[in-house]
Amino acid sequence: MDRLLSYEVLSRIFIECQRPELALISHAFYQVSQSITVQAETLIGIYGKDKIFAETGMEKSYPKLTTKENLVIALLRRGATISIYNELYKKIFEHGWIAVIKELLHKSKLVETIQRSELNQETRIFKLYSAKPLYDIGAEEYEWVSNSKPKNYIEILKLLDNAHEIKIDIAKEHKISPEMIAGGKAKVHIHPKINYNGEYSFNNRYRYRRFENDIYPPDFYEGVINSNLLDFTTRLSPQRLKKAFALTIQLGNQKMIDFILSHSNLVQLASNQSFHEAIKTGNMKIINDHIRNKDLIQNLNTNILEYEGIKNIKVLSFGLKTTTQNENRTGVSTSISGRCLLKESIAADNVEMARIILSRDSESHICIQADFRFACLKGNSKMAAIILEKHKDVHKTIPNLLIDVYSRGNQSISDLLIKSGADINGENGKLLKMAIRKNDSVMIGQLAELGAFLDLSDKKSIFNATEYGYTNLVEKAVSCGLASNIETINSCLILSIKNNHYDIFCLLLKNNADPLYQKNSPIVFACGVGNMDMVKTLISMGANIRAKNDKGFVQACKSGHYEIAKLAIEHGADVSAGSYKNEAFTCAYLGRHRKIVNLLVENGADKNLIPNLNFLIACERGDCTAVKAMLDNDLQNHTLLGERMDLDENQTQRHSGIKTGDVDEGIDINYRNGMGLVWACLRGNVDLVKLLIENGCNVKARKNRPLITACRKNRYEIAKLLIENGADLAAGKNRPLTAATTQNHHDIICLLLEKGASFRNFKGISVYWSAKLSLPSIFRDILETNVPRSLLDRSLVWVFRGKNTSNLEILMFYGVSVYGKYAKTILEGFRSQLNWEIGYDYLLGKNRSSSKMSRPI
Q1: Which pLDDT band holds residue 18 (cuts at 50, 70, 90)?
Q2: Which spans of this chain does UniProt mark as ANK repeats (predicted)?
């Protein structure tokens, strides 16, 4: 490919496509095409310097590239020009591309001037040059930056404000001699100083409207307007000057506060708003100035405690002091104000403020319950503790507070409430139920010591207590009558065995649990977990270790419990038992349980299974050499490999201890219904898979499990090989395609579609799974395959099941209606089940992005 196409053509292909997967065509050129230098030179070669930023240029053909700041800089430095009327020019300022703005500010153009001189009565005409900015940046650009407020907008505004200080070496830039420059200086200033008074946009926008609509940080006023402060303030109307004064207090801009006060009278500036801002920011000087000015008191509400947002301890103390003086003078209580302040202190996590408020107010707060609940649910244990110091029984009047706090996972406040005497048995012992389900041993122990109520009607709690091994709770359940509920106590017996809790197991058996429950199920599970004490106890109580066709024996062999397997054989267990013939021996051998394998061989197990089992082990390990030796019937190599491989992970030469004797060395390529091929696919060994197929292994074995496994594990070459040899693309209701989509394997999806798979098969089940689990890039590609509209609409339900925000937006882009029947079903029928409020808000139009999604190229 590199030899057939020119450098320019390849660069253009990759720049235009911007698709990483095209690197497969020519990875070297793809890497080169990502270079800013290559992109800039290629684009200039395509459009020319004058038209590259035109409407018909790069912005139309390659919109993605216009979002690259470094590329725009590279183009400008190579002489490309951009019109001030171009949309991209505006975006440069809105996006805050400060490096590009600096580049624009340094661009200049020459202006020719004619000068005459007379020497010896001869008139000479000289052409001289001066420089002007190529981009006359002023009020409009200022407005774009201040409206969009990029992160660095203060820095940009300062840059524009100081543009008049920029010097350009026009002799060097335009390659002319200094003698040709008017004034004879090569380095000149090209930008005039911004005239805030002369330009209407500045005069109108920044002097009058900004204080009403937008709030800027202090450095805006210090860095941008500071040079014009006097003019800025003297031109404001009295009402707007008051607003400006309040705003500067809010921003904490002491420099501007002092400046305004030095040129105005406080009586003219002060208002309830400025007083409120001083209270919120803790500016005691301004507060005192307002209160002490006799001319202001009549027009201001000077009761500090009636203002919201008090965060400063000094302000609060001062407010309480003045309020107390007023109370003593007037006899009017302000407890309601104290209550509001308490809530504000809780919201601000200001413990010291709350302590001051509580220590002052000798009466009960009107809404102390609500404030205390707020502090507890907010998780502020210190705040809750100081409220309890003042109001010891406040929690007793708030229903289910302890349950609500514990459900939010706040252990410290839960402990505080319990120690303070909160009701631990509310809602029929719900707190204990929650602790059991969380497996919270600390809380369970605490509640058990306090005698918490255990609800026997709640089987799930009893089962969880048994599963997690809380013997004290099970004892309590037994003492409360658990033994009378036969089904529940027997289910608990099974759980105690499965989780190896011997104490609970014995407790239940002593209290009416049935050791023969469900046809000897307890002893089967006891064999599986390998608890010999449980097994012997059950046998002593009449349980049959050979129950259910020696299922317990098989489980013991599978899990490697030698003593139990030996005990079962002593009781007459069949060594060939299992859900399929010789399951016990097969599982023990594949599990590398040496002692059990030898035990089974000694007791008559079929040794002829060993070659096939060695074959499966070789496939599982991806050992193509060993498999080939077995298939070639290389007896000597085969035997050694089998002995090393089956029981020795390090594959050393030592003997495994297996007593094989004489065996039939034949290999069944499809043994255990093609399990060898499945394991080879899982391992990802292409050569091994190819070897197995060449020797007749069934690619459709186990309901096409090999292909499904390859698709799920992203084994591209193996999947291709299986398909070429007849694997079913639509097996298991389109499982290969579903596996590839849910695991986001793009190459596998393309392979399956190329070979004839379809997302329409089986009523589009693969589309639904993709909507639920796939990445947005995969889901978009799937929808580009002309998926029927009916599948898109129904995918909405699956998106909600997977809580997939990105794919929900994609469906909206493709026109799935929020008023359709499936959206209605979600909103009306599934809301409580699916529990995804973000998605529901999206359907209701609350959180949708205002910008439309771009269709993938």
Answers
A1: low
A2: 518-550, 672-704, 702-734
Place of tokens 């070297």: 28
Count the neighbouring beta carbons within 10 Å of the beta carbon of residue 499. 15
Give tens-digit pLDDT for 469-510.
999 999 999 988 888 899 999 999 999 999 999 999 999 999
Q: How far apart are CA 125 and CA 721, in angstroms?
A: 85
Structural domain ending residue among the three candidates 559, 578, 605? 605
Q: How far apart are CA 12 and CA 42, in angstroms?
A: 7
For 740, the domain range is 673-757
Split at pLDDT 50, 70, 90, the class of 5 is very low
3-state DSSP assignment of residue 129: strand
β-strand 187-189 against 108-119: which pairing, if any? unpaired
Domain count, the chain: 5
Q: Among the residues of 408-450, which ranges form H helices?
A: 411-419, 426-437, 441-449
Q: What region does 854 belong to: left with phi over 0, alpha with psi -120 to 50, or beta?
A: beta
Which residues, 6+ apart, have CB-to-CB distance to 829 below 8 Å? none
- Same domain assignment for residues 719 and 794: no
DSSP structure class, residue 181: B
At 90-138, the pLDDT tens digits run: 888 888 899 999 998 888 888 887 766 665 666 666 678 888 888 887 7
Assigned domain for 522 exists:
yes
Evaluate whether 369 touches 397 at the Cβ level (below 8 Å).
yes
Kindly report the CA angle at 99 between 97 and 104, in degrees rounded to 5? 95
Helices (H) and strands (E) in the chain, counts: 55, 4
Do 624 and 595 reside in the same domain of the chain?
Answer: no
Name the domain boundary from 605, 637, 657: 605
CATH number at residue 733: 1.25.40.20
Within 10 angstroms of residue 291's Cβ, the number of other Cβ atoms is 16
Single out the residue of 258, 237, 139 nearest to residue 192, CA to CA. 139
